[in-house]
Amino acid sequence: MNKNNIAAVFTAALLSSTFAHIHAEEVSSYDGVPVFGGPNSTGAELKEENAPAPTGDLIKDAMPGWFATKDKVMKDHGLAYGINYSTAYQSANNSSGEDNAWGGIFQLPVSWTVLRNKDKGSTGTFVFKVENRHKISTDLAPQDLGIQGIGAASITATQFGDKGWILTNLYWQHKMDDGKFAYVVGQIDNTDFMDMYGAINPQTAFMNLNFSTNPSIGLADQGFGIGGGAFLSNNIYLVGMVVDARADPAKPIDSVKNFFNENEYFKHVEIGYTTSKDRSYLDNIHFVYWESDRQTNSAGATSEAAGTGWTFSAAHFFQDKYLPFIRYGKSDGGGGALDEELLSIGLGIYDGESGDGFGVGLSKSTPSELTFAPGLKDQYTGEIFYRYMLSKHFAITPDVQYIKDPVLNSVDSSVWVVGVRVRLTI
């Protein structure tokens, strides 16, 4: 595959699921969805989930009218939409409480480009995503199994919580000068815009937080904020953001009030190097600095300590197949961070013919004394998964995790967590 074809492919897929699908022979109207954000951002997911399939497409073949209508609406009105459902089940061989969890995530993502100036290379887009995150027939949701179930300072199934209906995206996205500069304002998910790399999406790649969003960061939940990014040269980029640190995605209006009245913020700035704009999160080295303000309750008492820290990440996608990565984070443990220090390394492998993906990761983490307790020892985590694409729109992913020295479990020296994730997109 020549260099021009590779660039076209990665522009179309732009960091969607674990790795980009390589199919330059076909095009999709969804290639025109403007993207500012990482692999799990609304625009990137819509672009990938509607890209042509490298192999058979059982779901699309069963619903040709649905996909034809979506394609026409996108072509005629710039309106992209979809319906996604992911479910995950996990079972642990040892625990200090519950040893199994099952949950699901329903998503309705929408991207509507209402302004497009081809001469100036600018677009203006409304981005919307509503979700329902729920447990299914078990006492715990998978996201809570690590801490509340097996007694590990770890999240074994990121995003698979029990929050009910939440608004994760409702923002205006403006891109200028062919994407060299962009900004967003509104209800945003901070994890869509910081510390990105190609295997960060927990619904398509690693589920453990140690290999997706860095747990040494005291992240705020989805809420009101403003941020932007720019390419300072062909290879150097800068991204910064300020969001409501007290945000609750179930109460988005409160987050707007908090942003302007309470002035308690989560802030971050990222500077990075990439081989080209089209491969921003596939070939990427970056540094992030973040701060989280002290949070107070209605009585004015501290509800969460202030926090600060930094992260480093390096990843390179080569031979259109392999994605080795190394990620590091260091913080004071404030802002609700799970860790004061994290080092993770791993490898992803993508099969361009089948669309299947494989990942293996290892990490060492030092739990936060502010979040948990002082004097806890280090914890070691491993994860391995294989994402089998039954069709372009239906994936089954067996997943195995190993946690050595779960620091909140005084009985067991190690825990195995075996699970399976299923994802349907239409």
Tell me what the structure shows:
There is one protein chain. The protein is mainly β and 426 residues long. The chain has a single domain (83-425), classed as Porin. Helices cover 13% and strands 43% of the residues. It contains six helices and 19 strands. It has helices at residues 3-13, 42-49, 58-62, 64-77, 142-150, 252-261; strands spanning 79-81, 84-92, 100-117, 122-135, 164-176, 181-188, 223-231, 236-244, 265-274, 284-292, 295-296, 302-304, 307-315, 322-331, 339-350, 357-367, 379-391, 394-404, 414-425. It has a 16-stranded antiparallel beta barrel with strand order 2-3-4-5-6-7-8-9-10-13-14-15-16-17-18-19. It has a two-stranded antiparallel sheet with strand order 11-12. Strand 17 (379-391) and strand 18 form a beta hairpin. The longest helix is centred in the N-terminal third of the chain and has 14 residues, at 64-77. It is globular and about 60 Å long. The model is unreliable at 1-25 (pLDDT under 50).
Give descriptors for this structure:
two-stranded antiparallel ribbon, 13% helix, mainly beta, 16-stranded antiparallel barrel, globular, 19 strands, single chain, 426 residues, Porin, 43% strand, disordered N terminus
Task: Write a concise synopsis of the structure shown.
The chain has 426 residues and is mainly β.
**Integer tally of domains:** 1
By CATH reckoning, the class would read Mainly Beta
Shape: globular
Which sequence of SSEs, written as H and E, runs from N to C?
A: HHHHEEEEHEEEEHEEEEEEEEEEE
Sheet-strand content, in percent, reads: 35-45%
Query: Overall pLDDT, averaged?
Result: 90
Helix percent band: 10-25%
Low-confidence stretches: 1-25
For this structure, what is the CATH homologous superfamily? Porin
Strand order, main sheet: write it out: 2-3-4-5-6-7-8-9-10-13-14-15-16-17-18-19
Major sheet = 16 strands, antiparallel, barrel
| DSSP strand tally | 19
CATH architecture: Beta Barrel
> How large is the count of helical segments?
6
Return Rg in Å: 20 Å
Terminal CA distance = 29 Å
**Helix/strand/pairing class, anyone?**
mainly beta
CATH-derived topology: Porin
